[in-house]
Design brief:
Layout: H1 2-23, E1 42-43, E2 51-60, E3 63-67, E4 70-73, E5 78-85, E6 91-96, H2 98-110, E7 121-124, E8 129-135, E9 140-145, E10 157-162
Parallel strand pairs: 2-5, 4-10
Antiparallel strand pairs: 1-8, 2-3, 5-8, 6-7, 6-9, 9-10
Length: about 160
């Protein structure tokens, strides 16, 4: 009886541990493989020099915002975004095109507690800080926005112009 119980527990544990493999990759855009291209460039190399850009997130006067709301960079430049959530709510910094962020935002409405494991995005709890090192390899206009439902609509969008 004891051996049969142990075998059953082992099978159950194996099934539970492999359940994530059965679930597949999940919604597109929430986990990038190392060879996948990003619209705004590529993850930077933390061992190489980078211009530091501090970005503060928070709420004020009924709006949600990023400071600064606009960043200008040169094509090929590496930037270390030092992110700080000074607000009372969780906030995100997701760097992509407007179209990609709008699409991602729709997915977030269906799953607002979605975990992100992307080099171009971070979710920060109140009073927390983190960093993203990014190399802007493409010219154009990109954005960083908070895709937690209602935050983008309340003004949490910033612009990155790459010249």
């Amino acid at each position: 009886m004891q051996k049969r119980y142990q075998t059953g527990v082992a099978l159950l544990a194996a099934a539970l541990l492999s359940a994530s493999a059965w679930a597949g990759a999940g919604p597109k855009g929430h986990s990038h493989s190392h060879d996948e291209a990003f619209s705004a460039g590529e993850p930077g190399d933390p061992k190489k020099p980078a211009r530091v850009v501090q970005v503060t997130m928070g709420e004020a006067d009924g709006k949600m915002l990023f400071m600064p709301a606009k960043v200008e960079v040169k094509k090929g430049e590496q930037v270390k975004f030092v992110l700080r959530n000074n607000g009372e709510l969780d906030h995100e910094f997701i760097l992509a095109t407007t179209a990609e962020n709008l699409k991602h935002g729709e997915a977030m409405k269906k799953n607002p507690d979605m975990e992100h494991d992307d080099p171009n995005g971070k979710r920060l709890a109140p009073k927390k800080a983190d960093e993203i090192v990014w190399k802007f390899t493409k010219a154009g206009q990109f954005e960083y926005s908070c895709l937690i439902p209602g935050h983008r609509e309340a003004g949490m969008v910033g612009t990155v112009v790459v010249k």
